[in-house]
Design goal:
By secondary structure, this protein is of the alpha+beta class. It has a domain of 54 residues: Multidrug-efflux Transporter Regulator, Chain: A, Domain 2, CATH 1.10.1660. It contains four helices and three strands. The protein has a three-stranded antiparallel sheet with strand order 1-3-2. The longest helix is centred in the middle third of the chain and has 10 residues. It is globular and about 45 Å long.
């Protein structure tokens, strides 16, 4: 049974799992959502869940390191 659970793909993440998966703190996740760098979570009753595919799309919109058009010190939001 345990091996079956490991093979099930994760479709959604809670706040702590999202923070861990992208290597930031939960407070940074909140700030990134507020700034538009990450989409807001989906809500089901009291649960807040981020859809993995939406996170991936959002992260692909982030500027790449060395991108001359990227401005690190100013706010920016997703275009999608």
């Amino acid at each position: 049974m345990t091996s079956d659970l490991r093979s099930v793909p994760r479709l959604g993440l809670n706040r702590a799992e999202l923070a861990l998966s992208i290597g930031v703190s939960v407070n940074t996740v909140d700030k990134m959502v507020e700034e538009g760098a990450l989409p807001p979570p989906r809500k089901w009753h009291t649960r807040k869940i981020w859809i993995v595919s939406e996170i991936e799309v959002a992260m692909l919109e982030w500027p790449q390191d060395g991108d001359q058009t990227a401005i690190d010190d100013e706010d920016w939001t997703m275009t999608a």
